[in-house]
Queue: 3 jobs
Job 1
Amino acid sequence: MFQYIYPLGYLHFIDLILFLLIITSQRSVIFLDINTISLTSLTLEDLHLSHLLPNYTIKFDRNGTVADNIYKYLSSRQGFIQHKRHIKAPKDKVNSYQQTFRELVLKGAPIVLFFSSFSPKVTNPKVTNQQLLPDMGDLLTLVHLHLLAKEVRSFYDYGFRFIIGYRGYLYQPILRWDIETVDQTFTILHELIKHAERITGVRNIIEFVDFVELTKREGDYFESQWEAEKTKVRNLYLDDDEYMERKISGWLRDFKQSINPIDFSDTKDFHSYMLNQAFSIRALKQVQFRGGEKDSGICNSLPPSVQTSVRGLDPELSIQLNPYFRYHAHQRLLGLNQLTGKWETFKWIEKAHVAEPITTNEYNYPFYYKI
């Protein structure tokens, strides 16, 4: 049979082409790996958090009670554990919290902190580029709360955890998310808890509940208190009360920067609509802590819980929801600064030209960005 003999140089050329194709293919795979991560394999070191672990260590005062040490720990390290904008609480408020912790410890009961937070991201496309679902910012927040609880549990055997009132359904009429987005966010947050548990090595720390459902469980009496408080807030604002005017104006400013204006193109008297929403949310904040027939706020249907705040500027015990970056996760996108190795929140309009999306094997949207 006739066989053609290729010149040696030609064969070398073919080998070179094949080699380059293989390398190009491998580089393509490597590139995809670099820009796609798996949440199931993440560690604290991967999250750039391992060097911060000493900040979670309690300085246990052996002359104090366990209850006093827990309260002192949660009220320490402003900007990391205690909210960075925490104001000095009145003495009676401090005494009330300390007494509550002492009673729980004396009973050998688990300590449960309740606060409300978490929702889909804000809808202003200049801020989030219409990426509304939970991302690395939410995961880092959950990891932080797990690490706090893990430290308390290291010296209190009867349990410590958080119950969080999910605010997605509460803010849905204002941010105009579709109900599927609100539902999906709630589902993903539960999934991210599982990842936070694996990363931190501690379980049963966080339980999400629907904040709107809690208000319904409180019944007609709570509803009547809420309505009465709305009237009070409205009257104070219209009477030019300095404190209430500042609170309402600040809320209006923040939310007008958060919404997508297109969603309100058919809304008549937009300012009045938003003003009424502000009165309602402000009133709910007031009765959340002291409403209901038992005068214990919104938690009557839950296990015995200690109400806390994640806002600062409140007299309540206030927790820093995330010490790694400035804003809450729903308010901004999240980037990992390639020069500093630190997490930063940003508006899409500020970093769109340099933001490189990082996706996950679990979710089909950008989970964070390299910036």
Job 2
Amino acid sequence: MKNNFIVVNFFRVTDPYSGGSEVSFNFFENIPSKNKQLFQFSEIKKKHKNVQSIYINNSKISKILNIYKLSNKIKKFCENKKKITIIIEGASWVGYSFLLYKFLKKDLSRAKFIYHSQNIEYFLRKYRSNFLITAITKFFEKYIAKNFDIFTCGSEIEKKKLKKLYNVNAKILYHGVRLPKNILTLKPIKKKYNYIFFCGNINYFPNYDALEILVKIIMPKLIKHKSNLKLIVTGNKLIPFKEKFLVNVGFVSKTFFFKYLKGASLFVNPIKINFGVQTKTLHALITGKTIISTNQGLKGIKINSKIKNVYVANHNSGFSKQILKNINSRKINIDARNYYSKIYTLDKVVLDFFKKNKLI
């Protein structure tokens, strides 16, 4: 009997524009089955193959008011289908997932429910939200962890934390990335100046903080020694910094993203707080770039200490020194590229997970 896979997102993931949307959409694309459908809320009226969208304003109230409508759409799609697996993406507030599950479970009691977590949300809310939202989030997340057939996490570290927090045995679904087919022959973007490269949507506050550190603290130190050095940034249409050494190229296609990455002297990630595996770091690892990062930027990733392309600096002064020390490391590290590709290429990650959990 063929399994029918339904993936649900509470924000637009088609035409990915952030780490979260990229993880969710590429996961869907790599599900090893033709019997799959993606449901999403979207603010853009655009059709995609195997995608059903409910067009709403991108606000919390709009999402809550339309979850019942979303559930009806899913139930209609499930009519006359005997084997169903519903995968709810955990890149949005867990309360949406809780409500949707309540609307679906009664009528789709035979369906298998999987929660695809991108982080442990309780820790994120604990850091940024008030006591009430944090407590509600913990209740919802625990309920889902206890009641879904499979609750995933992105690393061994998160698995241990979830066991301690909710007493559940989460299944590890490693984060992975999807590379262009021509990645090996893709020509790097070269400039008259050397540049270091950072990416990330600054609406996610750890990315904003990391970019601010680069612009206000690290780059001013670097240009005292390397006056022609630039910082190139992608992932945002506008950023609130105007320094001369800063080049914001905005949202770019994946092809141009990898061209900039390959052409950079270094990939840098001075992130101080992190609640899940950083997709940007995986991109750099699989490409074989030399990386300067904090421990937080490498959180949950299996770093091979025998391959010398990753350098850790947790303090701003040390971070600047590591950049200066390794500034001429533009060349791709073949050993790093080969090693990390075997672990974090998304099609392999998804296939292994589906086979291990007998979903196909």
Job 3
Amino acid sequence: MGFYLGVTLGSTALALLAQFARARRAARPAQGSFCETPEYVLMALYLAPYFLPMGLRYAIGTDYFAVYWPAFGMVAEGQPGPVNEIGYRVLVRLSLLVTQDSTWLFLTCALLIVGSTGAALWKFSDIPWISILLFAADRTFFMGMNVMRQYMALAVVIWAFPYIRSKCFWKYALVVMAASTLHTSMLMFLPLYLLVYIPLTPLFGGAVITVMFLLREPLAGVVHRIASMTRFIKYYDHMADISPLYREKFLYLLVIAAVASILYRRCRSKPGFQFLYNLELLALFISFNRSVVIQADRISWNLEFFHLLLIPALISACKKKWQKGVVGAVCIGVCLWFCWYEIFHCGYHEVVPYRCVFFSEVRFG
């Protein structure tokens, strides 16, 4: 835990320093050599503590040896690999042009996850350094070392957010389709574009969630019928053993949804906030209907990813410093608690302890 804490604090501190330099440069140009540093250099500095451990990891993540390492070897030998998405296969082929060492593939994927997400947060987040803190605190960093393709795709999807703000569907759809070449689950964001036009208030949203909960059995029948016509029907074979309620995730999402609901009136005029708020309500609904929704956890991960933009928006909406402190402490605190529970207490995604490709026998706690 100490290793990851150091990585998180290092990246957050550098992001805070970078944001300070950008603010000083905007307010009063020529404030010294650091304030004049190009923005891409500042971004590289604060993203490096995340990028290097993710790219140089060894045997970290449940899918490391189960999927990615053997898939790379199969493609290198000219065999069809287990991964069908064309975008990921192109990345593998490009890596093979350089070397047959899979470390270069993990470095490339880490660059996409950390670099693309970090650049988007610098551009779109109301408080970039908070988003960089949440990159670890809300588990994105850890899950990106396991469900790698999904988080590469999310690192692309986040660039569709400005088209949510401007309500430009065709540009939004192009970004989503590009992301789906890395992970098919990104296609769920195409129908979710409709959330831009659905003004769910806290009261109305709560009523919709209640009604959907009461109608969960008929909804499950509809979903099953649709799924029976696709390859996803196989997942229903495993759903009988899934608990409908993930209590800890429900509490974590409930806290964030409650804070967002309290601040809804202050935030609703922000471009894109309604979309983020609706995603949070949907994630909350899924957290206690996991036995109904196919691949509920994967769908929820896609929705939770946008906490990186939602939580800073909530904090920035507060006018007084003490309010910002309370909202930040509550939201970041509940993210840290759930991160500790899943990653360190339960050992989900198998990323603890950390191991580096250069010192594979050494375990960093």
